[in-house]
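Lecture notes, continued. The same structure-token format from the folding unit now serves as the input rather than the output. Read the line below as a description of shape only.
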């Protein structure tokens, strides 16, 4: 995600946070480390780390934050990968921001259909990522601002625009984005 729905620079914010973490005198960052063992309880942990470029490190600490990272899941549902006209929300954002070239000119599109919860909220992945709905709303607004005559349909199971992001959902509807609830076939 390049920008939040509010327009914030995600990469810039991450760099800023990383710099603060690395400069903080009471925080040690072990990027790329693997946890060999962890024992203890809140306020009294001992963790043994292994790292590719150094011997094992044993740490005594009161708090631990394990940030495993996240990877984008490439979908294989709904014909993704079979046509250059079928893109993910992340790819659509890149096209809209000019970062990615596409096989279609977004300014000339007559209609766009966005399908939410692709590859999630099913028996294999029963969770919600909590960002896809805001991405869809953000991209739908961008499409309508680029071309007010474009028809944008968002097929959703539940729209989850947390907190103050509800105003963007309302704005998308005011711009003419059509939200249609659906239940996927089992």
């Amino acid at each position: 995600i390049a920008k939040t729905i509010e327009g914030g620079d995600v990469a810039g914010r991450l760099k800023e946070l990383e710099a603060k973490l690395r400069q903080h005198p009471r925080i040690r960052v072990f990027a790329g480390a693997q946890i060999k063992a962890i024992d203890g309880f809140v306020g009294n942990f001992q963790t043994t780390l292994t790292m590719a470029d150094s011997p094992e490190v044993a740490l005594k600490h009161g708090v631990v934050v394990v940030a495993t990272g996240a990877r984008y899941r490439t979908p294989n549902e709904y014909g993704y990968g079979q046509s250059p006209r079928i893109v993910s929300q992340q790819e659509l954002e890149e096209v809209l921001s000019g970062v990615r070239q596409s096989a279609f000119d977004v300014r000339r599109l007559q209609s766009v259909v966005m399908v939410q919860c692709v590859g999630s909220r099913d028996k294999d992945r029963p969770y919600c990522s909590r960002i896809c709905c805001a991405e869809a709303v953000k991209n739908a607004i961008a499409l309508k601002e680029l071309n007010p005559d474009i028809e944008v349909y968002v097929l959703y199971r539940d729209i989850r625009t947390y907190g103050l992001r509800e105003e963007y959902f309302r704005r998308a509807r005011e711009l003419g984005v059509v939200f249609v609830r659906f239940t996927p076939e089992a």
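Point for the exam: The beta strands are 34-41, 44-51, 54-61, 111-115, 151-156, 178-181.
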